[in-house]
Design goal:
Elements: H1 4-16, H2 26-30, E1 37-39, E2 41-44, E3 46-48, E4 58-64, E5 70-81, E6 86-90, E7 96-100, E8 105-107, E9 114-120, E10 132-137, H3 156-161, E11 183-194, E12 200-212, E13 218-224, E14 239-250, E15 252-256, E16 268-271, E17 273-280, E18 288-292, E19 298-302, H4 311-322, H5 334-342, E20 353-358, E21 361-363, E22 378-379, E23 383-388, E24 393-396
């Protein structure tokens, strides 16, 4: 897909070569097929809630414990930056401090930006027939052996080698000559529990992810009033439907308990490789809906698959069959539809999510683990979840204060 940024780049190159420029005619403009926007943030860093800047600390109040005590949650030291934006430092007295100093990072680049597009719902990887779909997407994943999935036998060597050696990422690593496009991100959470004397009891937590890559992630939104497949007015809904794919890879995650001032950190859970490929919603085959309840709470719901024994389910299955592209027979019958859904073989889309948590240990966060475990460290064992499918999901926020 051509984007406007490609046109701007072309004009810049023409100017640098001292070529003559002339206004585009109507005929010239009629040949331009660009759509959507490309967003690039160069040398970007963000830091909010440093200990010396109490005005920018994000606070959640109004929460109470089961015995009626007030709880305040503070989000402090939230930062986004480039490689080595934070570190755990040995103070030399048996204590460790978490120091934040964000460096710059490029988020996207001109030939591979974050894109905001209007997609055709009839595209095979969108599957929202006859709809215009708003898509906000990270740079694409490269396919390896034609398969861009995260987890599987072909991807284990890529994960274990680390992000720098993994050729499927479009977002480039930082080098001596380039600040990179992989993000360090972290924050400190502190739960203050107010006891009877008015003095708070602090429960702090520090989270730090290094060189995170989100390539292949997207959110797709469209409005739909006939998601049930029915033309009957009483069956129609006026809601926002969504498909969400969250891809994330990071070679290191630290989760530690530190003092509210970032000092005196204890042992940390250290994950050496973390990969997530989360699928929430599959076109109109199994859409997710975003809505607000009557009492003002946010609700995310992933529909259950159509039940062929009900009239509504039968209508939805018929709609899916009728909306297949020419020559597609993956849902020629109800049985073939379910087989392809559960086997993750629907052309163009994924239905299964995967999670990989590599080599988690509990150790001092200043210890360099590349050479192996230190005596006394606790190794928790690599975990992986493959082929997870959301059959039905309903998440609703609730007001727990007051």
């Amino acid at each position: 897909m051509k984007r406007p940024v490609a046109l701007f780049s072309g004009l810049f190159i023409s100017a640098s070569l001292c070529a003559d420029m002339a206004p585009l005619t109507d005929d010239d403009m009629s040949q331009v097929e660009g759509s959507g926007l490309g967003v690039v943030l160069e040398d970007f860093s963000f830091h909010a809630g440093a200990e010396t800047d109490n005005e920018s600390v994000f606070r959640i109040t109004g929460i109470k414990t089961s015995d009626g005590r007030d709880v305040n949650i503070e989000v402090d030291n939230f930062f986004i930056g480039g490689k080595d934006s934070a570190s755990f430092v040995d103070n030399g007295d048996g204590t460790t401090s978490f120091i934040v100093n964000p460096t710059g990072v490029n988020i996207g680049r001109l030939n591979n930006p974050i894109s905001i597009n209007q997609r055709d719902g009839d595209d095979i990887d969108v599957r929202a027939p006859n709809k215009g779909v708003l898509e906000i997407a990270q740079p694409e994943l490269k396919a390896i052996n034609g398969d861009p999935v995260w987890i599987g036998a072909t991807m284990d060597p890529c994960l274990k080698a680390g992000a720098a050696e993994c050729s499927k990422f479009q977002s480039r690593e930082a080098t001596a000559d380039y600040i990179g496009e992989r993000i360090d991100i972290g924050l400190e959470l502190n739960a203050e529990i107010i006891n009877g004397s008015g003095d708070p009891e602090d429960s702090p937590l520090t989270i730090y992810m290094k060189e995170a890559v989100f390539d292949g992630s997207y959110m797709r939104l469209w409005g739909d009033e006939t998601a049930t497949g029915s033309e009957i007015e009483a069956d129609q809904r006026h809601i926002t439907l969504a498909n969400i794919r969250l891809n994330m890879y990071t070679p290191e995650i630290y989760i530690a308990s530190c003092g509210v001032d970032g000092t005196k950190c204890g042992d940390a859970v250290h994950i050496k490789h973390f990969a997530l490929d989360l699928i929430v919603g599959v076109g109109e085959i199994q859409p997710a809906s975003l809505s607000v309840t009557s009492d003002g709470n946010f609700q995310l719901e992933v529909e259950a698959l159509p039940n062929p024994t009900t009239s509504e389910g039968s209508r939805r299955l018929e709609l899916i069959r009728n909306d297949q592209s020419d020559g597609m027979t993956w849902a020629a019958t109800d049985k073939e539809f379910y087989e392809n859904y559960y086997n993750d073989t629907i052309p163009g889309v994924k239905t299964k999510s995967n999670l990989y948590i590599g080599d988690p240990t509990i150790s001092n966060p200043t210890f360099e683990t590349a050479g192996g475990l230190k005596v006394g460290d606790t190794y928790l064992g690599t975990s992986r979840i493959e082929g997870l499918q959301i059959q039905y999901l309903k998440m609703t926020t609730h007001d727990i204060g007051g």
